[in-house]
Amino acid sequence: MSIELTSITKTYGAQKAVDSVTFSAQKGQIVGFLGPNGAGKSTTMKILTGYLKPTEGTVFVNGVDVVTNPVEAQKKIGYLPEHNPLYLDMYVREYLQFRASVYHVEKSAVTDVIEKVGLTAEAHKKIKQLSKGYRQRVGLAAAILHNPEVLILDEPTTGLDPNQLVEIRQLIKELGKDKTVLLSTHIMQEVEAVCDRVILINKGVLVVDKTLEELKTSEKQVIQVTFDYKIEEQFIKQLPNISYFKNTSENNWTLEFESTEDMRPKIFDFAQENGLKILGLHSENKNLENLFQELTK
Ligand code: ADP
Ligand code: MG
Question: Pick from 178, 194, 212: which residue ends a domain?
Fold first, then answer.
């Protein structure tokens, strides 16, 4: 495993910002770290990169203990912090050369990285002359200079316009092919666009850890239906793919289906076959988007 967090807790005074979080990730994975503002994403990432000590728990990056050996671990980690701190008065190439010297990386790496992130045409410009999207590229370039195996990107797309968003996401996907990437975001759609796995954190607690594939198949269809008669459970049980049902009041039922197919026509058929009339029908999908909305209310 290239990233391994076990029972990580971080308290600030009386507040638990991160509460016993455990997860791991391996090479080739782009993991979306999703959560509303204040969920504990940045705190977890700072712990993962060795810039903050956890109150409890252990962190390993490529087998190196980040808490006891942060310098060694940081050689394996590229980190783009939340607000991408840059020296605005420096030229792009000059800044990256400076970062290369900090990392003890050959200067030739700078040209390679500039090309890789698509900064060749801007390399001679001052960072302050660049748009937000290009500044993010500088941040990404700095993060990958020492060719780390793990990339920790804290909200890399926040504040970008739609075109820049597409470009940076593409770049991250490209970089993620031979690295482990943990990318935080509070945008659900971003996870679908870039990641192959999602970890959802809320109030410091990990609530979902699934691959995108698992999420798609775990979608549930919830249908509220009102018949014109009170009917027996044994009838309801005969509905295809039904996974849960509840008689919420007299003629009202909440039905859940494990199916990606729209079950409403099936319910109409069922009603007709049993001589029932449908007085009301309401359908919703319970997916990650709904869960996220419930959490962020
Ligand atoms: P996120 O990145 O998901 O928005 P953070 O990890 O930044 O969340 O913050 C999690 C919680 O911890 C928030 O309630 C935040 O106010 C609090 N917090 C973060 N940093 C500090 C700090 N240095 N001192 C005190 N509280 C903090
Ligand atoms: Mg944050």
Answer: 212
